[in-house]
Amino acid sequence: MYLSSTLVTLAAVVATATAQEGTTIQVTVGKGGLVYTPNDIKAEVGTNIEFSFFPKNHTVTQSSFKDPCHPLENGFFSSFVPTANSPSGSTFTITVKDTKPIWLYCGQGNHCQTGMVAAINAPSTGNTFEAFALLAKNATASTSPPGGAVGGILKLAGAAGSSSSSSASGSGSASGFTTISTTKTVQTTVTATITAVVTNGGSTYSTTYPSTYGTTYTTALPETTIALAASGSGSSTSASASASATGNSAAGLAVNGGMAGAILFAGMALL
Questions:
Q1: Is the pTM of this model over 0.85?
Q2: What stretches in the chain show pLDDT beneath 50?
Q3: pLDDT for position 90
């Protein structure tokens, strides 16, 4: 009975929006309180969802249904966007790539637990938006991914002096896009069972033993495209971005190389 009445209360504050493929849905972040408006969104594949930030400092962070208020691995993240103006002009845009439900929250303080959550294409039964909001209400302290924006286009208003892909001077404005690729380093331990076949003096025999060794490799994180805009007299922006990406081939090289070395060493030791 308690669960039912709570869901009825949450249903009263649900704002919905529906869009067709190729269109854009505007969502305000923090306008009029700790809320996304709308917060229960229906969108076709290919629809852009543009989040517009209001004071004071909020995020758009993807989570799973079962673990609200905590980031989904490899999910999108706007980074924290501090603002003083209403609206600020800063936006974060994602594109709906399939019809699976998308769950998101604000990672600032206890905003998630107080109802600053939203869903895209949430089911009408079972794992509904109302059920997600109830889970968020009872979630542990919010966490956010490290680093900057990922998984969408972050456009920061009045970003004079920031990195951009264009330049301008005098009265007017300048804007551009830059795509940033980052990598993460992974350290792991590999345990393999080695079987060596040795022929010596006409005799052939084999031996099997475990081999454990450490390996370090880098893997590419999802690319982030950031749009930066600057306006006003005498403002300018200049291109400045660096990219570094090493794919999963590095991991395969490190592991296979380590195993080959272990087998060769075993063969030499038995001769």
A1: no
A2: 1-13, 160-179, 181, 228-271
A3: 96
**Residue 194 CA: distances (Å) to CA of 141, 203, 267:** 46, 20, 11
- DSSP letters along 132-156, please? HHHHHHT--S----SSS-BSSEEEE
Q: At what angle do helices 2-11 and 129-137 cross, to 10 degrees?
A: 110
**Euclidean distance between CA atoms 177 and 225, whole angstroms:** 7
CA atoms lying within 13 Å on the CB side of residue 33 = 9
> Is residue 50 classed exposed, middle or buried when 0-12, 13-18 and 19+ CB atoms within 10 A define those classes?
middle
116 in the Ramachandran plot: left (φ > 0), alpha (ψ -120 to 50) or beta? beta
C-alpha–C-alpha distance, residues 202 and 262, integer Å: 24
At 14 the pLDDT is 53
| Structure-block tokens of residue 166 | 């264009």
Using one digit for the tens of pLDDT, what is the confidence trace for 177-219? 444 545 556 666 767 777 777 777 777 777 776 767 666 656 5
Can you tell me the distance from the alpha carbon of 61 to that of 71, in angstroms, rounded to the nearest whole number? 6
Q: What is the pLDDT of residue 194?
A: 73
Q: Write the DSSP string, 185-242.
A: EEEEEEEEEEEEEEEETTEEEEEEEEEEEEEEEEEEPPPEEEEEEEESTT---B----
